[in-house]
């Protein structure tokens, strides 16, 4: 079954739904595109669209999305070039929401492709771009509106490239993408210097993710780990409130070994309690941190911060 959104749009985009996020549709429509959504295994013909958009999705693509892979291969090898954007991940010192289950091994990437983004936490690949054709991928969520929107203009870049091919005036996708992204961090758009109080930070409280109930879906909570690591590198002591155990991690946040390591190395403290204003207030009185980091624990921590502010 197909669904059409913004039917009067001036650019026709076909979206293959592998786990489509509503904000992906909203942004494409707001930018003037007509978006036709097809199921992940629906064969799509080249003459049906101006550009192809592959949404992000869960699972191992090699075992669960073979039909999708066949569709994308036909588009890449076709003599008729229609620019697809494969939503899968990216890093560029831009801040974007992401969740790693699988990543591309750059050592196995074909010579026709180049690395577009690299994650600075674990150096995993976050995006690829074709050296001559208008194909690029990202492995994060540029449509995510939970915080900063550093990568939102990737949608406009994608539509600009599609439009150039539709008008038979193709632009160099790699050069144009890098130029547009660079504008986000240079000149008038350069980020401001850190506030003066940052140099006075000695200790911060990090709010992680809340515990899970039976039957409730959940993701790995590696964000708090990375926050602790980053603070330690800047000689800032941390207090971590995080009740969730990462069973599939080599170093679960709530494990005794993880807690002992933190305490021995940097005198950090880990509290495996529910994230509530009452618990946070107790920790604030005990440790008197300079500030609180809220953005490493999903909605629970953000909502707790709002309640504390109120």
UniProtKB/TrEMBL annotation:
GO terms for cellular component: cytoplasm. Keywords: ATP-binding, Ligase, Nucleotide-binding. This is Carbamoylphosphate synthetase. One of its GO terms (molecular function) is ATP binding. The keyword Nucleotide-binding applies. InterPro entries: Class_I_gatase-like, CPSase_preATP-grasp, GATASE, PreATP-grasp_dom_sf. The keyword RNA-binding does not apply. PROSITE patterns: GATASE_TYPE_1. It comes from Rotaria magnacalcarata. Residues 202-310 form the Carbamoyl phosphate synthase preATP-grasp domain. Residues 15-76, 82-160 form the Glutamine amidotransferase domain. GO terms for biological process: glutamine metabolic process. Pfam families: CPSase_L_D1 (PF25596), GATase (PF00117).
């Amino acid at each position: 079954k197909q669904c059409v959104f913004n039917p009067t749009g001036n650019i026709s985009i076909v979206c293959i739904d592998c786990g489509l996020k509503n904000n992906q549709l909203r942004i494409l429509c707001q930018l003037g595109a007509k978006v036709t959504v097809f199921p992940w295994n629906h064969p799509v013909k080249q003459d049906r669209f101006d550009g192809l958009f592959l949404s992000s999705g869960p699972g191992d693509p090699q075992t669960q999305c073979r039909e999708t892979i066949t569709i994308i291969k036909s588009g890449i090898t076709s003599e008729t070039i229609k620019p697809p954007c494969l939503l899968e991940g990216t890093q560029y010192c831009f801040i974007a929401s992401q969740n790693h289950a699988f990543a591309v091994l750059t050592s196995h990437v074909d010579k026709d492709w180049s690395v577009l983004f690299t994650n600075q936490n674990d150096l995993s690949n976050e995006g690829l771009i074709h050296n001559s054709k208008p194909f690029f991928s990202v492995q994060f969520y540029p449509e995510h509106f939970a915080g900063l929107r550093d990568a939102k203009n990737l949608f406009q870049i994608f539509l600009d490239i599609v439009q150039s091919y539709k008008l038979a005036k193709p632009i160099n996708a790699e050069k144009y993408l890098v130029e547009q992204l660079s504008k986000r961090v240079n000149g008038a758009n350069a980020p401001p210097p850190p506030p003066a109080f940052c140099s006075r930070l000695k200790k911060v409280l990090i709010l992680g993710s809340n515990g899970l109930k039976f039957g409730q879906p959940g993701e790995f909570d590696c964000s708090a780990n990375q926050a602790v690591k980053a603070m330690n590198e800047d000689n800032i002591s941390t207090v971590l409130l995080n009740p969730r155990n990462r069973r599939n991690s080599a170093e679960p946040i709530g494990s005794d070994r993880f807690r002992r390591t933190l305490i021995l190395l940097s005198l950090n403290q880990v509290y495996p309690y529910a994230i509530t204003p009452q618990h946070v207030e107790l920790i604030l009185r005990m440790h008197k941190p300079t500030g609180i980091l809220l953005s490493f624990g999903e909605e629970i921590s953000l909502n707790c911060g709002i309640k504390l502010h109120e």
